[in-house]
Amino acid sequence: MFQLDILIDISILPSNIMTLRDDNFIDFVKEEAGHSAATLLEIQGINCVKSLLMANSVYAIMDVKSKSLDGLKIKYGYMQDDGTVVIQPGVKGNIEHLTDLLKTKCIEDVKLAKSSKHNQSSSSTILKSTSTLLKIKKKYIIDTLNNWCENNKSKLNVQQFSLVEGEHYFILLQNDSNGALKCDIRCYCQKWSSLSLRRGKFQLSNFYRHLQGLNNICPALKKMISNPQSALPSSTNNPPPLITSHNVPQQVASPNQIPFNQIHLYPQHLLLQYQQIMMKALCNNHHQ
Is residue 223 over pLDDT 70? Predict the structure, then answer.
């Protein structure tokens, strides 16, 4: 049995079909279903897709008892002996095909809208989940450093000792080219330290060695300990030196590896500087 579904191809419909009205809609019907179908719709005030699909029957006009419609009935139908009129099969077929096209178009538009809404919802959920994960990772690093400071006060021979994120050090969380989460810390002295990820937690051993190694101590930390009264100034009043491509680790300097939704973890007062560096890196890569 022949499947009529193969005749339903909504790609032939104009992209603005759902907004066509009056003469524009009737012109479309003439082109797609013929002049007879267009006349039959126009005389009934059917002037858009909505009114066509909402009409109970576009052929009911043939049953209306009115001499003013006799010409229409004779032109587009067959008068039977009992006085009833049967619409021409060709006209009826064209209208039904057009109606099926428009119904399918509406159904597909609804499916597309639902799919788009679902994708947006999924993307939003993923972004929220990613943001939450990054905040958890960042909080763990900050808390771990706070504990380190507390545990090393006696060793450093100071009564009050704390390192403030965004003032004494800066955390950068990002994905590498393979999508793996990476973390780097920049000390106030401009030294970068990469943290390894073990069992889902970033290990701060590299940063500890920078702060207080066997044979060296961070110059900024040393100054802070030797002269507590001249502790490092607040970054809001005296921002740290400009980050340059010379003191940023290679994986940090690559703009293609920094997802936009993760940049917000970087201190706000450095964001403009950081964006400028990334733009410069992009230009350099382009010229190379």
Answer: yes
